[in-house]
């Protein structure tokens, strides 16, 4: 079922409906155990994590994660690199939006956010590197993150395929000079990781980090701006503190990482349901975020609900996962989303046109096909 190229949104909605009627975890028709309860999800992700095969969404080679020690070092280096760049001070939102738009000035959904965020994080990904590495990163963003992870189209052009791009990155990594004393970007980071990692391994890690940095954040940016325009937040009087609940609510109702998958390493139970070693567990973040037992009017977009969230709501909010496997850079991702969303909603007049009404779910949960147009406000409007 996951091999077809259609949106999985109708499956997500069906699973949400089944979860609302179920008393605890239940099995999907293909055998996977579906978890839609926050306590059970936290138990899988944190309290009984030893019952599952170690994994990492981004610090891995193929399906096999790096060692725990190496993952910890990579996470530490990633945070240091992000903290070492003042991205908000150097970013030109006007040129980024112009470049992401088409000839008619429209920002097409399922791609424009990734393009803007790619430019935002450019100094972090390949800071002051020669053009070949950045060109290969751009090709990867276009032919894999956009075409495959977001839209779900098969990548047919051999010269744009992930393996060929990886081979090009490998070749460029081999040409780099000696390691810098301190990592300045993700290229430095993957080259400095210890252990018997080949250049091809390091190229693969770089690709996965680009997906983490650009893909998830870019899709969420599209959701925040689209929903902000639709719900009246597209205003020159918008204040930065108003954007935070907007971002949180967008990630609640449309979590970009709509599911978390685990593989059982031992025989055990999840909320009383027996699980055998080798079985797959699917934690439905989207279903947890839309549970009527936790959220009042769960399908309504209401940023004001974050003014006084309940304890259950805080525990049920899992856009970045939990435990050792959660996204290490989630704080920086949220900061980037708040900054970019504020600039777009305050400084631009927006309109949205949708070709379809339903979100598009593949690896990432993206907005419906369509476009958003952002027109720069006059300086006087922004100052009033």
Structural descriptors:
four-stranded mixed β-sheet; three-stranded antiparallel β-sheet; alpha+beta; 384 residues; globular; 11% strand; 16 helices
Please provide a written account of the structure:
With about 375 residues, this protein is an alpha+beta fold. Helices cover about 50% and strands about 10% of the residues. It is built from 16 helices and 13 strands. The strands form 5 sheets. It has a 4-stranded mixed β-sheet with strand order 1-2-9-6. Strand 7 and strand 8 form a beta hairpin. The radius of gyration is 21 Å and the shape is globular.
What is the mean pLDDT? 91
How many beta-strand segments? 13
Largest sheet: 4 strands, mixed
Strands across the major sheet, in which order? 1-2-9-6
Ends distance:
53 Å
> What Rg do the Cα atoms give?
21 Å
Task: Give me the strand/helix succession.
Answer: HEEHEEHHHEHHHHHHHEEEEHHHEEEEH
Helix content: 40-55%
Tally of helical runs: 16
Q: Uncertain runs with pLDDT below 50, 5 residues or more?
A: none
Shape: globular
Summing up helix and strand content along with how strands pair, one would put the structural category as: alpha+beta
Strand content: 5-15%
